[in-house]
TrEMBL record:
Residues 34-82 form the LysM domain. It comes from Alcanivorax borkumensis (strain ATCC 700651 / DSM 11573 / NCIMB 13689 / SK2). InterPro entries: Bact_Kbp (IPR052196), LysM (IPR018392), LysM_dom_sf (IPR036779). It holds the Pfam family LysM. The keyword Signal applies. This is LysM domain protein. The lineage of its organism: Bacteria, Pseudomonadati, Pseudomonadota, Gammaproteobacteria, Oceanospirillales. The keyword Transmembrane does not apply. PANTHER family: PHAGE-LIKE ELEMENT PBSX PROTEIN XKDP, POTASSIUM BINDING PROTEIN KBP. Keywords: Signal. Residues 1-24 form the signal peptide.
Amino acid sequence: MMMKSVQRALTFGLVLAVSGMASAAVVLKDGHPSKYFVKNGDTLWDISGRFLQEPWQWPEIWQINEEISNPHLIYPGDEIRLSYVDGEPRLSVKRGVEETVMSNGTVKLTPRVREIANDQAIPAIPASAIQSYLKEGLVVDRQEIIEAPYLVGGRDRRVIFGEGDTVYARDTKTQWEGLEQGYGFYRTGEQYVDPDTNEVLGYEARQIGLGRVSSHDDDMISLRVTDSSEDLRIDDRLFSTEDRRVRAVLYPSAPDTKIEAKVIRFFDRLNSVARNDVVVINKGLRDGLKEGNVLDIYGQGEVVRDRQQGDMVQLPRERTGSMVIFRVFDKVSYSLIMESTRPIYMNDIAESPAGSY
């Protein structure tokens, strides 16, 4: 029986934990190594991809070594070993060693003491690829936009503002109930529309600046603009700037129910995306998705003419990659492309991994 892992952590501003994973069969990759030494720049996904056909299934065969301190974290210098228990594959970690030169010139090898911060462990997925989306990306509905506090002006009768300026914002809805010290300035951007139903799924809110509250008077506050990526303007909205960098917890698992989604948004790409690019799909919390869910990606088959029959036919779809959901809103989700064998296009299909439902 395959071991089910609980409480697996891998932290570098991100934490990888495992809870209730789908029981799809684990298949070792052809030509897999028997051991691997962890290096700086590695991610858990890349390491597990050396051993497994499906890297997200790592926790299915992970074996904790209770003899070492904090066996849930993996650091550069550690050794990942593949072994078999009752005929079933197991992966385990052996801590790296450090060399100590003794007074007589001999070298003593001892297990490395882990008195270092957890955020020096290797990440589950490339943290740098998603950090800005964790901090700055929001998807809101029309009512949230209408009710959000908004910028009404600044000093010297100016209409645009930037870093170092003092600006004023108004909250007519709740009059700053639960006032915070910091806020983000946001501008409404892309409208997300379901390609199948034409339902408006939400609006992208882009963070264009940060501000610190300096004073409060009824429904008005004064803020010092501490950062701006572009000019701030009257009517820009304000939302809380909770720090999501260390709160992001990924659960590498198949969705609890079968998911069939489509890619509906690229960032900074025109025609296609590939590994380490971020996309938006048209499914979210209401569909049962959660952070850490893994989806396979399929390219739509080309429509061609059958020269024998004279009609148009669609070629079979092909699996072109996989993605990990790292941020979930009500009706859409942000995903990181983890693997891509071919370019990934708008309206490509993202669905639950085969064998997990």
